[in-house]
Design goal:
The complex is a heterodimer of chains A (115) and B (115). Helix content of chain A is 0%, strand content 52%. Chain A has 115 residues and is an all-beta fold. The radius of gyration of chain A is 14 Å and the shape is globular. Chain B is mainly β. Chain B has one domain: Immunoglobulin-like (Sandwich). Chain B contains no helices and 11 strands. Chain B is globular. The mean pLDDT of chain B is 94. Classes of the chains: A mainly beta (115), B mainly beta (115).
């Protein structure tokens, strides 16, 4: 049973426009959420994160929004650039003994930004 | 400023053989995680080390899988009697291990193919 769900396997947007990637989760105990970007044949690269005590975090062109009541988060990329084309993973963790922050991952959304 | 490195980048083996996958974390990072990513899936947690000890090995699929981190730095994931279903990309991540919210940084992964 997927605790972190990314229901859109792919997304295509025009360069300069906004990309919105969505993620839903089922476990209300998650307290930390992260977005990673992955290029082929590379490991995931950390992009941006948000604590459950916040509803928004912004870093340059990237903004993550968290709606705890809906158990939903989204990643906004504005403006989108061709170099943003990659697979984006949503991941979540919950605090546990010994600072274990193992991540629970969605299936990913493949973003294509067209010039 | 080296990141997480993993060797080999690719490993092809025959069913029933033994393999070792190596991870060099970021210097000074005390927390180390192994994940496995199968085709079309998100990464799946395998094991977490804090220092030299395996604090959480709940993600290891069975007793053919074992990991060590004898000096609290480099880690080796060992798979005995490999099966075709073990074919996947094995990802290693490290983090500072400090209390609180902690970002994991990933290596490029080792692609294991069991024939």
């Amino acid at each position: 049973d997927q605790q972190v769900k990314q229901n859109s396997p792919s997304l295509s947007v025009q360069e300069g426009r906004i990309s919105i990637l969505n993620c839903d989760y089922t476990n209300s105990m998650f307290d930390y959420f992260l977005w990673y970007k992955k290029y082929p044949a590379e490991g995931p690269t950390f992009l941006i994160s948000i604590s459950s005590i916040k509803d928004k975090n912004e870093d340059g062109r990237f903004t993550v929004f968290l709606n705890k009541s809906a158990k939903h988060l989204s990643l906004h990329i504005v403006p989108s650039q061709p170099g943003d084309s990659a697979v984006y993973f949503c991941a979540a963790s919950l605090g546990s003994a010994g600072n274990n922050r193992k991540l629970i991952w969605g299936l990913g959304t493949s973003l294509a930004v067209n010039p | 400023g080296a990141g997480v490195s993993q060797t080999p980048s690719n490993k092809v083996t025959e069913k029933g053989k033994y393999v070792e996958l190596r991870c060099d974390p970021i210097s000074g990072h005390t927390a180390l995680y192994w994940y496995r990513q199968s085709l079309g899936q998100g990464p799946e947690f395998l094991i977490y080390f804090q220092g030299t000890g395996a604090a959480d090995d709940s993600g290891l699929p069975n007793d053919r899988f074992f990991a060590v981190r004898p000096e609290g730095s480099v880690s080796t994931l060992k798979i005995q009697r490999t099966e075709r279903g073990d074919s996947a990309v094995y990802l290693c991540a490290s983090s500072s291990g400090l209390a609180g919210l902690d970002t994991q940084y990933f290596g490029p992964g080792t692609r294991l193919t069991v024939l």
